[in-house]
Design brief:
The complex is a heterotrimer of chains A (about 350), B (about 230) and C (about 850). Chain A is mainly alpha-helical and about 350 residues long. Chain A has three domains: about 100 residues, no CATH class; about 90 residues, no CATH class; about 80 residues, no CATH class. Helices cover about 35% and strands about 0% of the residues of chain A. Chain C has about 850 residues and is mainly beta. Chain C is built from four helices and 42 strands. In chain C, strand 38 and strand 39 form a beta hairpin. Classes of the chains: A mainly alpha (about 350), B mainly alpha (about 230), C mainly beta (about 850).
Amino acid sequence: MTTALRSSLLPLLTAVSLWLASASAQAQQSRDALARTLPSSTLTGEEVQASRTRLLAAPGFARARVAGNPQAPDAHAIGEGSCIACHQLEADHFTHTLHALGLHAANKADASIPVCETCHGPGSAHAQSPQTPGLIIGFTKASGTPVEVQTRTCLACHKGGPRDHWSGSVHQRNDLSCSDCHNPMANFSAEGLLAKASINDTCAQCHKDIRIQFNRRSHMPLPEGQMSCVDCHNPHGSITSPLLKTNTVNETCYQCHAEKRGPFLFEHAPVRESCLNCHTPHGSNQNTLLVAPIPFLCQQCHTGQRHPNDLHTAQSLATGAHPDERVMGRGCLTCHANIHGSNAPSGPRFHE
Amino acid sequence: MKPNLPPVLILAVALPILAGCASSRMLDLRAVAPVQGDVQAGARKIELCSACHGKNGSSPVPAFANIGGQKIDYLYWELVEYQRGANPDSPMTAILRSLNVSDQDLRDLSAYYAAQAPAPSSGDPAAFAQGQMLYRQGDPARGIVPCQGCHGTAADGRVDGDASRYLAYPALRGQHEQYLARRLTEFRDKTETLMSSNDHIMHGVAHNLDDEAIRQLAGWLQAATP
Amino acid sequence: MHAQRRSTLLCRLPLALALAAILPAHADSGIGVDTWRANKLDPTAGAQQYTPDARGTSWLIAGQRRSPTGNPYMCPAEPPALDEFGSWIGYGVLQVGAIATSGDDRNALWMRYADWDSGPILGLLDYTWQRPSDGTYANVRASRISADDQYYQAVFGRAGAYKIQAFLRDQPNVVSANARSIWNGIGSDRLTLPAPLVPAGSSVADVAAVSAAAGERTLSVKRSKQGLGFNMFLSPRWTAYANLSDEQRKGARPYGGAFFFNFPFPANGGALETVKPIDDHTLNLNGGLRYAGSIWRMDFSYSGSFYRDRYTRYTFQMPYALWAVVPGSAAAPLTTGQMAMEPDNDYHNLKATLTRTLPLNGEISLTASAGRMSQDDTLIAPIDCTGVFGIGLGGNLNPGPANPFLYRCSDWNTPAALSRRSADMRIDTSLLDARISLQPSSDISLRGGLRFNRDDYRNGYLAYNPLTGDYGYIAENGSQGSIVPGEVGLFNPITAPSNITRVRSLPLDLQTIDANLGADWKLDTKNTLGATFAFNRYEPTHRERRRIDDNSLKLTWINRSLDWLTLRANYTWKKSNGDRYEFDPYEFTYSIDLPGYVPPAGGTPSHTVEAMRKYDMSSRDGHKIDVMATIMPREDMSLSASLRGDWNSYDAPIGRQDYQTSSATLQWDWQPRDGTNISAYAAWDRSQLRLSNVQDQQNGAGVDPYLGGPNYALSGQWWLRDKQRNFYGGATLDHRIGRVRIDASWNYTNARGLDLYTYAGSSALAYPASVTGTGPGGGQFPAMTYRVNALTIGVTLPLAERLSLRVFDYYERGRVSDWHYLGFDAARVIDHRVYTDGGPISYNANLVGVLLNVQL
């Protein structure tokens, strides 16, 4: 993609948008008019037949069934039309989500596929006694539905894949529900049906201490919205602690820092072992996410004879009595620049 | 170099001015404090009301609501709605807007009528078996929800585990059939009269009621015995 | 010599596009990156600008419900105004406007990841089409701050069937905005000195003058990425996905350049902060099949990554001449230094997971994964020089037997001087993981895991020059051997049999075994207790230990007994130990290990001090606590508090001795009504790292490795305590008055780090003479500080039914001080040390913006 092409995208997109804006002014629909277009749960047999072929091509919702609610064993399904009777405002928000799109289409094609009750379970008992907790599967603190029932309900459709290791994961063990992070009742985030406006905001609900580390002097571009917690971590469970998406810490870092992968002709043992030996990934008061200031970071291990093991004072700074390259600026890295490993035959000490 | 700070200052000045623009037609009854009024004081103010609704709240005219023994919160908020012009066609709106009625008057009147005995049921419940069924179970096929969820199994406006939002849900038992039918039809068809959050709930509920269902429900409720 | 590297696998874009056609990136929490695209203008990619629906969430209840943990949900946005296009409906938003920056708006900290550029911007374009009849949808989203800070993405799919996604994005990363380079050719692989500077012949004054005259410039690295992905249901149980992305990095960053020490001898050596060109691209791809049945689940995936660097190395001209420490001798002029770039590398990984449900509500899951990281980059020559390098005795620069410390460049400046022409290095990785969970009753769950991981290094490298018969390498671009006779970095069994130098690569094969066993017990509906024991055996090769065992026991408690509180607390006890600690396991990589090695007269100097314990290898005791509380004081209010501490003490007389981190946070959220959010937070964290080191006393020739011996005398020991403590605070307001929306936020960070040292005697110091007295003492470095206040205030005014105007101001004030860079504002050239980057600089900058918001 050339810069020229990229910069030409802006006017193009603007033009498209303005066209859309003018078109929308004519075809605008009131909210009530929209409500009338909402699919109802009562369809004629003809419509069902006509849509069946379309449904078969959307297998994701084809298996949608009324969720089982152990707390309302005798309840039966009442259909979206009944739910919306009281929950109109919820429906007004829900209808623009991806779940609604899929469930409505599936329900249209096969009226036996539920909409609301796919996740909330059968509604009859709840409709008769809405104030009794647990009669409907709820995903909130006050709902009276146990967290296991909540997660089991979501996993009925969402098991496997990225959620393969939910069972036994740290979030599962800590009694988190899917709805602690997701709120599929409306679009609160641009993507992912999250409970908060972004992945990072969602994680920060509990992990504020980690989130604020990104306010430190050196940090990855997470507060700037350029990356998310989920670039490195899989909150749904993984086989690598702490919920890393790859097999090791380093493989996680290599996803964006592929140049560090090597293997180099000359390796630096702690670098290969774990990037976290020297870097603190969520933010640091030092430059480049370092755990401690150079040269002291290096001097934790480098006690070799001659120049590495001297104690420096502020007199070794440019403002001091005897400026010393081991401390100023990049310090050790001024000479040992290729510290992550060197592919130079003359680079065993990472000078080249 | 000094940065430009003035935009911040302009905004800071603008905020209080903009803050004055707020207004909303919606009457939010989702979290309101329980209404209290003075029954004795209310008794002194009922002259005009009693003309239509009776001294004890039992209206002799089937088109007018029985209000005796109704829940105080419901009565009060209904009066507030009329006062705010919720339904311009209703005589209640004209009355409340033309008279100089204070908020305390509304509370006292509500307290008074709430303290009266409910009007007795009339009619034969058995003639409205369908209405009873709708009230108790609803009809999922038509998207009709059971009314008892909010209005109580005995249609007295009482449900277990009362939350504050239930305070303003009315008792329906013994209400005039004609009045009930009109209200349900209005909830369904006259969207311009919706004002309170509860009106919006009823709009959705009534949306799926056909005329026959309304007739059945209203009939059963008038006839329903405790 | 400076030939650009040819990419063997890919010729950049064309092939990438060809691949894209076959393998069409979606955000996946299970694999890959690219899960989020946004920018600093709106890190939520539009969501924070959704207009909260004044009607609330439900007609039935007031305010917002809470998540099971107790965090309040947000007020949903107003449903969008829809347009109909036949069977499609569409809605979206367009924000266009302009921003203007002022103040120190070229500051690196201000610009770090946001390329604010005064002028028109596309704040956001977000448009969605949906076809309700069959669930088909499409979405485009774009934002453009500037040419270096923009993204465009398009998604097309059908709910429950498939999804195709494509994106383009440019990410800025400003690494220095006050770089003064003495070289021309920044961003290229050849850094040359401008007149009047002459390689190996410039005076310090001339170099300083060129540096001072060089304008301050910005060094940055831009990442441009294109991605394509799809996922689809093959059947209700089978899904397939594939993602492909190609990322180019372009720019330059400060780096190093070694021409030996300057500190021991004035006007000699060279410590040069050069500028490394960044010009590379990485192709990432992954794909897989997933099956989710009621009994079995399967996940098969492949990930590949291919890194290609335009350059194999870059060179830089050396401004200074060197002088040899032998009186009367001459140092050969060295004009050029080189730096190897990271080699092109390939990565493949295959992974398969099989999971089966078990009786007792259980599940067993097996994962096998095999990977390979390899590179076979062409090796660069040991030195880039012409003529001779080294020391000419008596001032004679003619090579020959009479000049044993002078070397012919032609013996070393071609690949023929290497034992092989390309690197041919490879690491094979394998992983097996098994885990089981059982829930025999609703109150008890049990789990266990076993994991085996292995890295196998294939191949090794011997530094041997077949042209000369020498082993070893040319240290620091030839400078070391041109200053100190014989220290060129070479071993020769005949001519230099006592030289100690690196001759071999270091293979770091390793194996780890993890095992864990845990149980959770629901005491009642309000309390859950848990315990997990974890064991990790780490078996590295060619490290100080062959085996390190980590043991930990974690106890957890979750309490919900109070309606207004969710409490999660855990404590972890940690203990690490291992087999015998061998303080010098690297001997085999040195010439000491070669036949023909003759120890020097005083014996082979010790590599390091015996008492040293590297912190990744040392025995360690630790404790960790973690408490998280969600408190609900009122229906419309929440408090979240966390308390964490991690204390680790290391069994290390020399080395890292202690590392502690702790933090406390408090967050308050209030939603007094739908559409109004107020929040505030305050947090504190600190860390303390203690280490000890010891200065050798025998000028590098000491053979006794023991602490307290003649070389590592106790008087040379010193201790350092690095203390960091940070305060954070902030508040946000998002308030809606009618259709006017006001938002404000403030973030404050105050970081302060101190390095305090003590020493047993002045012989611990690099410069004993700079302190008075010879006894114990101590001191500290100037505080390292970073204080930032960031304030945003904005107002969104309705102009028409679907038109609003957002006016906002973002102000940031940063105060930073890093002692590494003290004095760099006055001069970047200090004798033979040349610095390019001036370090972080304090700033005040402001951004004001106007955005026209059109509901499409």
